[in-house]
Amino acid sequence: MDFTIIKHAVEVDHGIKRLSMRFIKRYAAPERVRLSAELCTQIREELERIGLITLPRTLPRSENDFVWVIQRDSTLGEVTAVAAVLANLDKLGVSPVPQLFDNYPDAKQALT
């Protein structure tokens, strides 16, 4: 998996880039016909290893879907990481801010 082009694209766009899963798959596994759940997990882990996070956190398996790729060490990346922690705590029922995601169900789903 070579994500150098994706990393540079995110840097050029000031730390955030909207990419199709088809584009990501082209660099992750061009020989694969379909995106599997395992491949999506591997892609997410590799992106995290090079300092990028995705929104939604769980990558979709459809090549027609789009995801946001965010530079982790940017301000937006830090805010996204904090929000993801809060969403996971809320999902576990131990949120320090109860009912935070009551008005933002799509955000909670994308962050977990």
Count of DSSP helices? 5
In the sheet with the most strands, the strands line up as 1-3-2
Strand content: 5-15%
The whole-number mean of residue pLDDT values reads 91
Describe the sheet with the most strands. Answer: 3 strands, antiparallel
Distance between the termini: 24 Å
Low-confidence stretches: none
The secondary-structure class comes to alpha+beta
- Give the C-alpha Rg: 14 Å
Tertiary shape: globular
Count of beta strands: 3
How much helix, percentage-wise, in residues? 40-55%
Order of helices and strands: HEHHEEHH
List the helices and strands and how they pair.
Elements: H1 4-12, E1 16-20, H2 21-28, H3 37-49, E2 52-55, E3 66-71, H4 75-92, H5 105-111
Antiparallel strand pairs: 1-3, 2-3
Structure description:
The chain is an alpha+beta fold. The chain is built from 5 helices and 3 strands; from the N terminus they run αβααββαα. The protein has helices at 4-12, 21-28, 37-49, 75-92, 105-111, and strands at residues 16-20, 52-55, 66-71. It has a 3-stranded antiparallel β-sheet with strand order 1-3-2, sandwiched between helices. It is globular, with a radius of gyration of 14 Å. It starts with a helix and ends with a helix.
